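Technical annex, item 7. During the second reporting period the consortium partners agreed on a shared format for inverse folding records so that results from different sites could be compared directly. Each record opens with the tokenized structure and is followed by the designed sequence. A conforming record, contributed by the partner at site C, is shown below for reference.
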């Protein structure tokens, strides 16, 4: 795997759109909390036996959703939003109930 690439939040969708055009698929999306209250998101992509990792930090606890490019990002974005109180701009499903909320049974 090539070394991870860092990106600015405003470039995230452009960079990931290039990977999608090259037939990469999203393998995982994780978040690491930062001391300043922000988070670093780690996107792992694969095409055959090639892997690419992209790291991007939130700004004001917000980052663009990649749901429009990789529909499989929906669930991890909702998990991360719920766990870290982050906003993914453009994900229409963030308001769906999460299994991290208390059950009303």
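Designed sequence (site C submission):
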């Amino acid at each position: 795997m090539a070394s991870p690439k860092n990106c600015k939040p405003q470039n995230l969708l452009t960079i990931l759109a290039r990977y999608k055009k090259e037939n990469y698929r999203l393998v995982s999306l994780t978040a690491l909390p930062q001391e300043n209250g922000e988070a670093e998101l780690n996107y792992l992509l694969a095409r055959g036996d090639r892997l690419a990792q992209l790291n991007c930090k939130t700004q004001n606890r917000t980052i663009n959703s990649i749901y429009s490019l990789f529909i499989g990002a929906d669930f991890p974005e909702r998990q991360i939003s719920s766990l870290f109180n982050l906003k993914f701009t453009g994900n229409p499903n963030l308001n769906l109930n999460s299994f991290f909320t208390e059950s009303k049974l």
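Residues 14 and 26 are 15 Å apart (CA to CA). The first strand starts at residue 5 and ends at 7. All partners now use this format for quarterly exchanges.
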